[in-house]
Write a structure and sequence with these properties.
The chain is α+β, with helices and mostly antiparallel strands and 502 residues long. Helices cover 31% and strands 29% of the residues. It contains 13 helices and 25 strands. It has helices at 2-15, 45-66, 82-86, 112-132, 143-146, 149-161, 165-170, 176-183, 191-208, 210-223, 226-234, 238-252, 428-432; strands spanning 19-22, 29-33, 36-40, 74-78, 103-106, 269-274, 281-287, 290-296, 301-309, 321-323, 329-335, 338-344, 352-355, 360-368, 371-377, 385-389, 394-399, 403-411, 414-421, 437-442, 445-448, 457-463, 467-472, 481-484, 490-492. The strands form six sheets. A five-stranded mixed sheet has the order 1-2-3-4-5. The protein has a four-stranded antiparallel sheet with strand order 6-7-8-9, with no helix packed on it. The chain has a four-stranded antiparallel sheet with strand order 10-11-12-13. A hairpin with a 2-residue loop joins β7 and β8 (290-296). α4 (112-132) packs across α6 (149-161) and α9 crosses α10. The chain is globular, with a radius of gyration of 23 Å. The relative contact order is 0.09. Residues 1-15, 254-267, 465-469 and 471-502 have low confidence and may be disordered.
């Protein structure tokens, strides 16, 4: 028996946990991966195995840091689409005698790196809930019932996702009312608050190190008070902690004004695009638990079709939008069967609806008025480049790179894209900080371009005569950059208000 245990430990260290198919509720398939069981629907076998490996790796990592292993196994329910995930109400504590849930609800995000971050952060949050409210302390420790979201979820998201360029961009000018909502514990889940929560833990991590973060988590369990945990561990009162937090955020701010507050648009904007005429604008908003799409013209603002329910916004759905050179608009929504592409043509009497048969879509780009390029997550868990012919709506796979192919473009007669190395490896936290690399399609394969790597890609490409640009982050500074074909090197570039729309 002892030799078998040692052999199992050696195999875990070399190849990872064992994978075993197990029973699951009706309508679901079951896969056991070490301390985790993945529930998934038929057709998700490949992605379910990867989700199980990510979850098992995060479980081993966080329990090793905390030196605390919850009893039993955790269940990761992999919903087939963001829509299906959105219909599942989140678990909330109902009383001091109810144990925390062991079921973690996730869905396939547009990239494997994003899916890994989602799985890791939710598993870490579940383990923290069991740390504060598990067997043996349930009757006398009610910390979980009164724990502020920035404490538990802030650590879970920081440790599960890492500190990203998207967080830096969101926190350029956080509104004052955001802090008031956090103090009053009335902040609703949103990408802004998620980045704010993460920023506090990131500042503590940079200042005091990893061990202090774990000490804070344990001290909160012992004292049943978040404020006392910081006081005893770091000798900081809540006021001093807030001052240090704000001082750290000031380092991230690039200007005193917030362009997203201009023109009546707030941080509810999830995605946006500007027509070539510079007048028409399209955007997606999160309003009253729904994602809704709007088109703004000189005549007024109109709601576009495709509205779908999204009850919380801790996770941002992939909602690419793009105008063609002649003003056609394409945008992505989600229904029960997955991603759906909508097309609006100026002067047409109806919209075109094209079911894509993909779980999600990362980016879209107009090659010409009758052809769209898009990258999306298919049932096999891959991110190929697709072409969509209009008006037939025929979706064809163009090519597959060894990794996640993101943000495609057709530039001067050739395909270009931002490419992320294979995120299927068992190192999600490192992958999230791994740079993207520009690539171009030549000789029936994707080859690395001469441009330097990106540390974050956002907004797609802006293509002009001899130059192309992206709202990217070459030096992790949260600023857009432009690339010129004559020099082949990036240069800093900024246009007032551009980041709102592109």
């Amino acid at each position: 028996m002892r030799s078998a245990i040692l052999l199992g430990a050696l195999l875990w260290a070399q190849t990872g946990p064992f994978l075993t198919y197990v029973a699951a509720p009706r309508g679901w398939q079951g896969l056991e991966v070490g301390p985790v069981v993945v529930w998934y629907v038929r057709g998700q076998e490949g992605l379910a195995r990867q989700v199980g490996l990510w979850a098992a790796d995060a479980h081993r990592e966080i329990t090793g840091l905390l030196e605390f292993v919850p009893e039993g196994k955790f269940i990761v329910r992999l919903h087939p689409s963001p829509y299906a995930w959105g219909q599942q109400p989140p678990w909330e504590p109902q009383g001091s005698l109810v144990s925390p849930s062991r079921i973690i609800e996730v869905y396939p995000a547009a990239t494997r790196a994003a899916t890994a971050a989602l799985v890791r952060s939710h598993l870490i949050a579940a383990i923290l809930q069991h740390l504060y409210f598990s067997e043996g302390v349930r009757l006398q420790n009610r910390t979980l019932l009164y724990m502020p979201p920035w404490f538990l979820w802030g650590f879970a998201y920081f440790w599960g996702e890492g500190w990203t360029a998207e967080d830096i961009t969101r926190l350029q000018t956080p509104p004052e009312k955001a802090f008031e909502a956090i103090y009053a514990r009335t902040a609703r889940p949103s990408p802004l608050y998620r980045s704010l929560y993460k920023s506090l833990w990131y500042s503590l991590y940079r200042t005091y190190g990893q061990r202090k973060l774990i000490d804070i988590l344990y001290m909160a369990r012992l004292t049943r008070s978040v404020s006392e945990a910081f006081s005893l561990t770091l000798n900081l009162s809540e006021e001093e902690l807030t001052e240090k937090w704000r001082a750290f955020l000031q380092l991230l701010q690039s200007s005193a004004s917030d362009p997203s507050e201009e023109g009546g648009f707030r941080r509810g904007v999830l995605s946006a695009a500007v027509a070539p005429d510079g007048v028409q604008r399209a955007y997606a908003l999160w309003q009253k638990a729904y994602v809704r799409y709007y088109l703004e013209t000189e005549e007024g603002t109109y709601e576009l079709p495709g509205r779908w329910p999204w009850p919380e916004t801790y996770h941002e759905p992939e909602l690419p939008m793009a105008f063609s050179p002649q003003g056609q608009l394409a945008w992505v929504a989600y229904e029960m069967e997955g991603a759906v592409l909508w097309i609006w043509t100026p002067g047409a009497s109806a919209y075109q609806r094209v079911p894509l048969g993909l779980r999600s879509v990362q980016a879209i780009f107009w090659q010409d008025e009758r052809t769209l390029l898009l990258t999306g997550l298919n049932e096999a868990g891959q991110m190929p480049l697709y072409t969509l012919s209009l008006p037939q709506g025929a979706l064809r796979k163009h090519s597959q790179a060894e990794g996640d192919l993101l943000f495609p473009a057709w530039i001067r007669g050739e395909y270009r894209a931002a490419w992320q190395p294979d995120t299927g490896r068992l190192a999600p936290l490192g992958v999230l900080w791994e740079p993207y690399r520009p690539v171009r399609y030549s000789a029936d394969r994707w080859i690395a371009d001469t441009f330097p790597p990106f540390y974050g890609v956002g907004g797609g490409w802006i293509v002009a005569d001899t130059q192309w640009a992206t709202l990217s982050d070459v030096k992790a500074e949260g600023h857009p950059w432009i690339f010129r074909s004559d020099t082949m090197y990036p240069s800093g570039w900024s246009t007032t208000g551009l980041a709102r729309w592109v």
